[in-house]
Design a protein that fits this description.
Two copies of one chain form a homodimer.
Chain A lengths: L1 H25 L5 H13 L4 H8 L3 H13 L3 E5 L7 E5 L1 H18 L8 H18 L1 H4 L2
Antiparallel strand pairs in A: 1-2
Helix pairs in contact in A: 1-5, 2-3, 2-5, 3-4
Chain A binds a DNA duplex (30 and 30 nucleotides) through helix 4.
Protein name (chains A, B): Winged helix-turn-helix transcriptional regulator
Organism (chains A, B): Naasia lichenicola
GO molecular function, one term (chains A, B): DNA-binding transcription factor activity
DNA sequence: CCGAACTATATAGCTGCGCTATGCAAAATC
DNA sequence: GATTTTGCATAGCGCAGCTATATAGTTCGG
């Protein structure tokens, strides 16, 4: 079972290197926390700041600040929560969806040359693993 | 080929979420740049600060600072370069190897419960992908 | 060999992330 | 309806990582 440990380690380190390669290649230094947050909003729909902080795995005040910055750029919008006057629902805007897509596109394009020699089987394995990870790290799973 | 783009995006986002889960779970907030650096030193042996900065994909002054911090904790040591008095070779110490291993172990252990239901086939796919990524994002590959 | 250009690292100073501690206002509880 | 609890905001700190620049060693033309 130690192979699992090595595998996870390797996956994580490689992914972080990919991120840095893309960040340098595109000159886009947007923080991972920002696009993690946008991606959560797309996948799981509008939610409160507190939920968003837990889902994106940052402290609540950190998420407050992220949301403020995103709102200033119209990438998200705040919707009053009719049930609780203290709370807001945070929703991604079309502009926000574009911003995330553009960023992800840049990452993938920066990485693409490194993977030009992958076979169809390789890509199939990559897709399978991406799917496994998504299922097991989704917001609902991790809530436990 | 757009599937490749989606796949890479998904892998990267999942990996970053795993990292945050581990950081919160263990309370170990060590910067990704630090263990990326240590992992490069283990895989590729001693190298200069400039090379290390390029390999870890940070600016040179950033690496200077990282190396200073790591040296203060005896996780790396500086070796004078006999060929060039301006340069140093940076080598990881046994203590540094332990530190990296401990950190990676914590990450994997934090993640393990999420993956307890994976089949042997799933793990085989994970290993295959980890291997693919390592081969394509190694320091020598990326030098281009 | 001597000075100019180049190179390897270090320093200075900035911006912004993410944290803890705390404040404040709305719910919930009794 | 006063107390406790909850959800978010603010304050303020520490540090990562950046650009610009300084410093010291190397290389190369003459």
């Amino acid at each position: 079972m130690n192979e699992s440990v090595d595998t996870l380690q390797s996956l994580i380190i490689s992914a972080h290197r990919l991120t840095r390669i893309a960040a340098q290649h595109t000159g886009n230094g947007t923080s991972p926390a920002v696009w993690r947050t946008l991606s959560i909003l797309i996948n799981d729909g509008p939610m409160r700041i507190g939920e968003l902080a837990a889902a994106s795995r940052v402290a609540q005040p950190t998420m407050t600040k992220i949301v403020q910055n995103l709102a200033a750029e119209d990438l998200i919008r705040r919707i009053a929560d009719v049930d609780d006057a203290r709370a807001w629902l945070i929703a991604i805007t079309p502009k926000g969806q574009n911003a995330l897509n553009t960023w992800l596109q840049q990452v993938a394009e920066s990485a693409a040359p490194l993977f030009s020699d992958l076979t169809a089987d390789d890509w199939a394995a990559m897709r399978a693993v991406a799917s496994i990870l998504e299922r097991h790290i989704s917001v609902s799973e991790v809530a436990a």
